[in-house]
Amino acid sequence: MSGRSVLVTGGTGALGRAVVGAFLGEGARVTVPWIVATEAEAARSAWHEALAAGRLALVEADVAEESGAQLAAAAAGEVEVLVNGVGGFAGGERFEATALDVWDRMYRMNLRSAAACSAAVLPGMRSRRRGVIVNVASQAAFAAPATLAAYSASKAGVAVLTRSLQEELAGEGIRVVAVVPSTIDTPANRAAMPGADFSAWTPPAKIAGVVLWLASDAASTVRGALLPV
């Protein structure tokens, strides 16, 4: 992984920070787009050595927009690995009480951002005939729990994008895969569900380790997989 250019969207969030740290630990050059200033400042503080060494770049960009995705991809240079980690969660209301704005927000954060960033990096990957795209879906996409229709549908879209895009790229040297987490053990989830059994949740570092493996040459035969974590 040393020296490879990696673009990690959502890299300032709880899961994203673990993914960025894992790639930095393997010697990769990592680019992280951001839109929340406080998260960007926390990232600068946590990774000041990598920033100073030129191994990490923070780029203000809304990657759910074509212009933002293109900006982030250009800043990363010859992207060899894209991790579509940006995302969001909403739910808990009956279907008819769920505003269409929630549907729009889940689509924009979870699916549109993945589509925009994949489109931004694919021309370069295709020309080099090499690259890996790792998406982040959710087990809710398959379990389809009650009151989570908007979130689950957007993550189901990520799963379909993963397999459809891999079919399109067959024979071009590019792999598209996805991790499919259950509930991730983050401060936000603990605050939202204080009575839950946290021991049953998956730590971000564990998921980051799987992402790192999927992006490596050791997983070169893994294509179109939706891997539960």
Distance between the termini: 22 Å
- Number of H/I helices: 9
Helix content: 40-55%
CATH topology: Rossmann fold
**Strand-and-helix sequence, N→C?**
EHEHHEHEHEHHEHHE
Q: Strand-residue fraction? A: 15-25%
Number of domains: 1
CATH superfamily: NAD(P)-binding Rossmann-like Domain
Mean pLDDT: 96
- Shape descriptor reads globular
What would you report as the Rg, rounded to the nearest angstrom? Answer: 17 Å
| Tally of DSSP β-strands | 7
CATH class: Alpha Beta
Show the helix and strand layout.
Elements: E1 5-9, H1 14-25, E2 29-34, H2 37-46, H3 48-52, E3 56-60, H4 66-76, E4 81-84, H5 100-128, E5 131-136, H6 140-143, H7 149-168, E6 174-180, H8 187-192, H9 204-215, E7 226-228
Parallel strand pairs: 1-2, 1-4, 2-3, 4-5, 5-6, 6-7
